[in-house]
Amino acid sequence: MGILEIFKSQKKENPVDFSLKWLEVDMHSHLIPGIDDGVKTLSESIILIKRMQEYGLRKIITTPHIMTEYFRNTPEIIRLGLEEVRLALQKEGMDIQVDAAAEYYLDEVFLEKVESGQELLTIKDNLVLVETGFMNKPQMMLEIFFAMEMNGYKPILAHPERYHYLIKDPQFLQDLLDREIYFQINLLSLTGFYSKPIKHFAEMLIDENKVKLFGTDCHNHRYLDMLETLPQSKYFEKIQDMDILNRYL
């Protein structure tokens, strides 16, 4: 029995009618097996991608973590993992485009990569997905963004709604917006998956038209199970009408 036969045998009799066709491209996920805190096995990766394809996505850009202390991935490691996933998709007869970039943690090592001209994996063109710790504001954050811009990169800040330092510091939030840093919201934040304060902050950023991209940030089946509750959000129709960059990736 192949991977997709197992998937079909495990599906619910009445599958949820849920669509991300309006999004077109998911640009934040962790679907390369065994290299970060995302999927653990190749079969899990393929089944998750199959579910996402059934939501109507035409393309997935998966973004493994690159973090100095925890996930010491390189472009070479990520490309090898991507090729493994693509070959498995081809074997299963699945026709969906899957590319890879990275989610870079902002620290001194990342700054050194930028300033020394090391290769960064981009979402498209010069767009680079970055993240920080959730609690404390990185002291070097603006310095790193300046270095990125001076080296031709455009930062996308992953899930800003999850950073407590932004929720508590409206002035620093405005500083980032004044620098025209692109904000990417996790769709799961609108379901209350992380917490009510994070949900409310995500809604505020949407209301004030501060969001450039959306992503699933999918790590495992639990993420997609919760994602299928998104239509219950009062913001589900609103975000479908937004002029987001996902469609141009």
UniProtKB/TrEMBL annotation:
Keyword annotations: Hydrolase
Q: Which reaction does it catalyse?
A: O-phospho-L-tyrosyl-[protein] + H2O = L-tyrosyl-[protein] + phosphate
| Gene Ontology MF terms in the entry | manganese ion binding; protein tyrosine phosphatase activity
Domain of life here?
A: Bacteria
Assigned EC number: 3.1.3.48
Keyword hit for Disulfide bond: no
Tell me which family the UniProt entry assigns to this protein: Belongs to the metallo-dependent hydrolases superfamily. CpsB/CapC family.
How is this protein named in the record?
protein-tyrosine-phosphatase
User: What is the scientific name of the source organism?
Assistant: Cecembia lonarensis (strain CCUG 58316 / KCTC 22772 / LW9)
